[in-house]
Amino acid sequence: MDKDNVRFDAKQLKLFATELLQKTGMETAVADVVAETLVEGDLLGHDTHGLALLAPYIREIEKGGMSLRGEPEMLSDRGASLLWNGCRLPGPWLVRRGIEALAPRARQYGTATLVIRRSHHIACLAAYLLRATDAGFLMLLASSDPEVRTVAPHGGTRAVFTPNPIAAGIPTSHSPFLVDISSSIKTNGMSTRMHRAGLKYDEDCLLDAEGNPSRDPAVLAADPPGTILPLGGLTSGHKGYGLALLVEALTGGLAGHGRADPDEGWGATVYMSLIDPNAFAGADAFARQTDWIAEACRSNPPRPGVEAVRMPGDRGIELMARQVTEGVKLHPSIPPMLQECAQRLGVPFPSPLP
Length: 354
Known about the structure:
Elements: E1 7-8, H1 10-23, H2 28-43, H3 54-62, E2 73-77, E3 81-85, H4 91-109, E4 111-119, H5 126-133, E5 138-144, E6 165-170, E7 177-182, H6 188-196, E8 206-207, E9 213-214, E10 227-228, H7 233-255, E11 268-275, H8 283-298, H9 314-326, E12 328-329, H10 334-345
Parallel strand pairs: 3-4
Antiparallel strand pairs: 1-12, 2-3, 4-11, 5-6, 5-11, 6-7, 8-9, 8-10
Helix pairs in contact: 1-2, 2-4
């Protein structure tokens, strides 16, 4: 069988991931949420932030970097604004708990915001957005990792930031917009995958330690290391730089915990807001505007070489529906990592679909 075309049943992948996490001592309810989030990352096509993270998560658990017991600690509650200490609990579980905590408050106040300090990694941001948009909310979600530094400020050569992703789920009358972008040109996950495969990018999206443009992700592993360029690259990187600063303010700034503090290991500081359009002009008025934008973009004449203009999320939602039916196509680098964990922890790895 061609390893590049192997597909797996989504439900079986989720059951496998849940059982693997349970073997590490994670409670069933928490393991189920983490597994579901990782599989949904792959279903949406974000295959560097789906099951590719399962083996690293397990390594974190085994070395004590991810907590398996307890609840987030409430540090501040002012009704429409919350601050939690995530106690290094699994990030996907904390974000899902956060959505549940914010929803009734957003209905009451119109908008509600949660910031989480000391969360563990939260995986694919897009994987959470549909839960908000399906309930009629506009959702904003951002994350930074105080420990990791791979992105230099525009004009600089020494890393200060992570790729600092920010996401937005925007409801419409039909398919929502699912925006999931980073403030850097490339992500750490993709750069690591490219480096391991000995591949180079098609454009200069990195700098070596001396500040020379590079396409080779190996510069990130050099000594001294290079950096990833901010979104906009060499000429317009001030845009990604500004976005990175916004994410830092929303996460580390509002959390009061970030890069100014001692390193604690791989993790996340998280910002999330739910906004109820009914508290403003109303859900129907909101949808009238977003529907118009969707039509204006999707009907836009495409430039040469482009089949059609899509809205953010169109491809992911279509891919998810197809992969639920036809099976999940995992990146070839992922099954070997999962099989190693499966063998070591005594959990059967799912068989590919015929």
